[in-house]
Design goal:
Largest sheet: 4 strands, antiparallel
Number of helices: 7
CATH topology: NADH Oxidase
Shape: globular
Number of strands: 4
Order of helices and strands: HHEHHHEHEHE
Distance between the termini: 34 Å
CATH architecture: 3-Layer(aba) Sandwich
Strand order of the largest sheet: 1-2-4-3
Helix content: 40-55%
């Protein structure tokens, strides 16, 4: 796939089919992702991927906690809207409005919550982990790793969504993977093959370059 096509075809999909992803493909995607730039080549990332029975157990536990209303306690502090700039708050509001209209027009309001409860029916869940101490440069490196991973997945015909929901209950994840408290679950990415449902047709807007770009010569 041409690189431009990879970029244009990567979207955040919220519902995947039951088709599994081969282990060799997952390893190839991670191998691509580790080519991401890293501060002084620190390569701080640790990656944990759940598939098969472990994935099923995580989904069952997540669904149970979510439907019982158990509050999330993500390791990465959730930023309230008031902590964003005015421009970002406007972008968030636009996204919320557009998404609500899309769900209403396609009678898909209930499916939105269901896909989150079911962790998007992902074929694999990729957890991006940092060991303490965690610093801002390590988080930047992890962001570069995650974007490269998702672009590689797209190139393999696999779609993705990075989501708070995937790391909403980190204490349960540490128990599942036998990791101690020094392992911080920074972000999770759901991977899978696109399901042909209306919720996957939504596309968020991107602001015009002149709204954020400055070039001086």
């Amino acid at each position: 796939m041409e690189f431009k096509d990879v970029i244009q075809n990567r979207h955040s999909y919220r519902s995947f089919t039951d088709r599994p992803i081969g282990l060799a493909t997952l390893e190839a995607i991670v191998s691509d992702a580790k080519q991401a730039p890293s501060w002084a080549n620190a390569q701080p990332w640790q990656i944990v991927i759940a598939t098969g029975e472990v994935l099923a157990q995580i989904k069952d536990g997540h669904r149970l906690r979510s439907r019982r209303g158990v509050a999330g306690n993500a390791d990465l502090t959730v930023a309230h809207r008031t902590e964003w700039t005015a421009a970002s708050r406007n972008n968030i509001a636009t996204w919320n409005g557009d998404l609500s209209q899309h769900l209403l027009a396609n009678d898909a309001q209930s499916s939105y919550g269901q896909t989150q409860d079911n962790l998007f029916n992902a074929a694999a869940l990729v957890y991006l982990v940092l060991r303490e101490p965690v610093n801002e440069w390590a988080i930047f490196d992890l962001g570069a790793f995650s974007q490269t991973l998702m672009l590689s997945a797209t190139n393999h015909g696999i779609q993705s969504i990075p989501a708070y929901e995937v790391v909403r209950y980190p204490d349960a994840l540490r128990e599942t993977f036998a990791l101690d408290e020094t392992h911080r679950f920074i972000m999770g990415i759901a991977l899978g093959y696109r399901n042909q449902t209306a919720i996957n047709d939504f596309r968020s807007q991107r602001v015009a370059n002149q709204n954020f770009l400055t070039i001086k010569d």
